[in-house]
From TrEMBL:
Organism, scientific name: Streptomyces johnsoniae
Start and end residues of each Peptidase S8/S53 domain: 91-346
Residues the record marks as active site: D100 (charge relay system), H143 (charge relay system), S300 (charge relay system)
Short name of one Pfam family: Peptidase_S8
Lineage: Bacteria, Bacillati, Actinomycetota, Actinomycetes, Kitasatosporales
Keyword Protease found: yes
Designated name of the protein: S8 family serine peptidase
Positions of region (Disordered): 1-22, 426-475
Keywords: Hydrolase, Membrane, Protease, Serine protease, Signal, Transmembrane, Transmembrane helix
Length: 475
């Protein structure tokens, strides 16, 4: 009985284990399938590659409208001499990073000009931001699209960028450039450098000197990138001028704004840190969300013009350093009010002049080293005007003068000798003298008979009517 009972107990335990296993399998299978589906749906993380992500929809979308019929050529084309500049360079091979509100690359004027860029969103983490790679199709505010259009819009009868051959790399600040944290803005600048931008446009102005932003700008300058920043539109035109950043950082081209008449705008910030100026009065710019245009103004638009001019110079002279490009732009600018000032810096940017600027006789550092200046790429030194060397040295000229004096004395002596002899014969008295041997001359010639004449042999010739000696002889 004990043995049977034991066998029955073992069978019962095996049955219970089998039932539990079956229940576990039925429960685990759906979980395994769900986990597998989740893993398949998750993107693979590739080191160094930012994931693609869709931008958050705009709460409000800036849009534009068609330009009125009969609108003439874009005013900036004539004001900046772009037709002449485009004969020399279009900006090919240069990428301009636009750190702003984004760029709508679907606009016809920007088609094919805009590369895939980055988007930075603020998050509540230690890093303060999150970077994603997005296609350049969204710009809620329209500010970044306007900047991109002024830099690289296609040439047309009604709209043109300064460098229509340049490429644009958009760095979109999801929260707006004015609300971005310093670390987020610094990361955006670093991202533009890593993307290979030759020019970075920062159409923003902050009154605070933030360490992360300053360090990022310094890294960009050290990486040989031309950094262009707007001076801002607060109108702080005091003698010292309130500093605005990143425009006031070393190595940055700070850009003020002038009106259509070429005079500084009252709203444009001023200070000794302002380097250049561009046109900032209200103008038509490319708008997102379609194919229209809108009006914008300020130093942001002026900075975009300088960024486009920098792209032209870098395209024509690819061996120039960023510092040399900046120097070329300031040296060739059109002065306002007679010279450099705190409102417009060296003057209004002149793309054509920047492309043809010959430079002075001084070197890049103003030391006058023409050999170094001639060695700089894109620099054609102006040769010194040759001095007119005299035909004779001073010694030869003196000898020739004395020779002339002596020759003149000899000539005068030869011409005056007869007069001296005559004066000596008359005893150095004034008037004609008696002449030589006057008494002898009278004795030699026998006196002629009155009324007669003398023959050639000196004998007397009878007067007319007198008897000829021969004729009176008797035959």
């Amino acid at each position: 009985m004990r043995t049977k009972r034991t066998k029955r107990t073992k069978r019962t335990e095996r049955t219970a284990r089998t039932a539990r296993t079956a229940r576990t399998a039925r429960t685990a299978l759906p979980c395994a399938l769900a986990l597998a589906l989740a893993l398949c749906a998750a993107p693979l993380a590739v080191p160094g590659l930012a994931p693609q992500a869709a931008a958050e929809p705009c709460r409000t979308q800036a849009t534009g409208e068609d330009l009125p019929d009969g609108t003439g050529p874009y005013p900036l084309v004539d004001r900046l001499g772009l037709w002449q500049a485009w004969d020399l360079a279009l900006g090919e091979g240069v990428t301009v990073a636009v750190v702003d509100s984004g760029v709508d690359a679907t606009h016809p004027d920007l088609a094919g000009q805009v590369h895939n860029g980055s988007e930075f969103s603020g998050v509540m983490t230690e890093e303060e931001f999150e970077r994603t790679a997005v296609e350049p199709v969204q710009d809620c505010e329209g500010h970044g699209t306007a900047i991109a259009g002024l830099v690289a819009a296609h040439r047309s009868d009604r709209m043109s960028g300064v460098a229509p051959g340049a490429a644009v790399y958009p760095v979109r600040m999801d929260d707006g450039v004015d609300r971005a944290t310093p670390r987020t803005l610094a990361a955006a600048i670093d991202d533009a450098v890593e993307a290979g931008a030759g020019v970075i446009n920062l159409s923003l102005a902050r009154p605070v000197d933030d360490d992360p932003v300053r360090d990022a700008v310094a890294r960009a300058v050290a990486a040989d990138v031309v950094v262009v920043a707007a001076a801002g539109n607060e109108g702080n035109q005091g003698v010292s001028g309130g500093l605005m950043y990143p425009a006031a950082y070393d190595g940055v081209l700070a850009v003020g704004a002038v009106g259509d008449d070429g005079q500084p705008l009252d709203s444009s910030n001023a200070g000794p840190w302002v380097d250049l100026a561009g046109y900032g009065e209200e103008m038509a710019v490319v708008a997102p969300g379609g194919s229209g245009y809108r009006a914008e103004a300020g130093t942001s638009m002026a900075a975009a013009q300088v960024s486009g001019a920098a792209a032209l110079v870098r395209s024509r002279f690819p061996d120039l350093t960023a510092a040399e490009v900046a120097q070329r732009l300031t040296d060739s600018a059109t002065p306002v009010a007679g010279g450099r000032n705190d409102r417009t810096g060296a003057g209004i940017v002149d793309p054509f002049s920047a492309l043809t600027h010959l430079g002075g006789g001084d070197g890049a550092d103003g030391t006058g080293d023409n050999d170094d200046a001639a060695a700089r790429p894109g620099h054609i030194p102006v040769q010194a005007v040759p001095r007119e060397e005299p035909l004779l040295s001073s010694t030869a000229a003196t000898a020739l003068a004395w020779s002339g004096v002596l020759l003149l004395a000899v000539v005068l002596g030869l011409l005056g000798a007869p007069a001296v002899r005559r004066a000596a014969r008359r005893g150095w008295r004034a008037g004609p003298g008696p002449g030589p041997a006057e008494g002898e001359r009278r004795a030699a010639a026998p006196p002629a008979a009155p009324g007669g004449h003398a023959w050639l042999d000196g004998t007397e010739r009878p007067a007319r009517g007198a008897a000829h000696p021969t004729r009176n002889r008797t035959r």
